[in-house]
Specification:
Blueprint lengths: L9 H12 L8 H13 L5 E5 L5 H12 L5 E4 L19 H11 L5 E4 L3 H5 L6 E6 L5 H11 L3 E9 L7 H12 L4 E7 L2 E6 L8 H12 L2 H6 L5 H12 L8 H7 L3
Parallel strand pairs: 1-2, 1-4, 2-3, 4-5
Antiparallel strand pairs: 5-7, 6-7
Length: 266
């Protein structure tokens, strides 16, 4: 893989993007948002940035602000806007986040840099045929939902592109299981890691085996979370303590651009 270029103005661009992002309601933390900005700017692949799950536009504005500055093309944002963070259908809410999403893009001045799909991700993936450089999965957190998003769009992720899943280190069954089983245990992937609750991996179909040891070590630690994530909110107090203990052993601190780029080299 050729050397990854870090734009000299990257810190300034991400700071400006964060100032547009910070007031938008959502569950994305500041260090996670800044990391998404880094991925948007520095992922060494061609194609689109695809976001699955936009809610009120917090991650969308970050991604679109950075993409617009570096002329990376539109961010494709996919969301039916029938928000339901829980994986339990009984807790579904009919409230729509669409109006707030549109307003967030307008206020941030990025509307023209977002290609919005007001639809279920599975309906979009069924006919998708465009190359992707960065795939951001933050939609249905059930295993079936996260797996469908991964399987539906990953065939279009270009080599050296990045896939990232939100809430992988929170008590949801989908993101962490998909990350462990389909990224960390696959020789098609190279470098991988966590930043807070974002799990990320780089598609390296030609030389992913060079990263096998790194992925295996991370996979051993992350796989210990699977039984707890499957049970989610039903964990007892001692089980929650055990989950947090296992989670504490997973490296997940924020990365500088230089640190992240260094991880991409075997």
């Amino acid at each position: 893989m050729s050397a990854v270029a870090i734009p000299p103005d990257l810190d300034h661009v991400i700071e400006e993007a964060w100032q547009k992002t910070r007031s938008i309601p959502g569950f994305l933390l500041e260090n996670e948002a800044r990391f998404l900005g880094l991925l948007a700017a520095c992922t060494p692949a061609q194609g689109l940035i695809v976001e699955i799950g936009s809610f009120k536009g917090r991650s969308t504005v970050m991604l679109a602000s950075v993409a617009a500055h570096y002329q990376l093309g539109p961010v494709v944002a996919i969301d039916p806007h029938n928000f339901n963070l829980s994986v339990s259908p009984a807790k579904s809410s009919p409230a729509s986040s669409y109006d707030k999403f549109v307003e967030s893009l307008r206020v941030a001045g990025v509307s023209e840099h977002v290609e919005f799909r007001h639809a279920l991700s599975k309906d979009v993936s069924a006919s998708w045929n465009r190359p992707i450089r960065m795939l951001w999965i933050d939609g249905d957190h059930s295993y079936a939902g996260a797996k469908a998003d991964f399987d539906g769009f990953m065939p279009h992720l270009n080599p050296n592109g990045i896939v990232a899943l939100h809430d992988s280190l929170n008590l949801f069954p989908g993101p962490i299981r998909v990350f462990v089983e389909d990224v960390l245990r696959s020789s098609r992937f190279g470098a991988a890691g966590f930043v807070h609750s974002i799990a990320w991996g780089q598609l390296r179909p030609e030389d992913g085996q060079k990263f096998e040891a790194q992925r295996a070590t991370l996979g051993q630690r992350a796989s210990r979370l699977l039984p707890y994530a499957d049970r989610g909110a039903s964990l007892h107090a001692l089980q929650k303590m055990a989950y947090k203990l296992h989670r504490s052993r997973i490296p997940r601190t924020p990365l500088t651009a230089a640190q992240w780029v260094a991880q991409l080299e075997p």
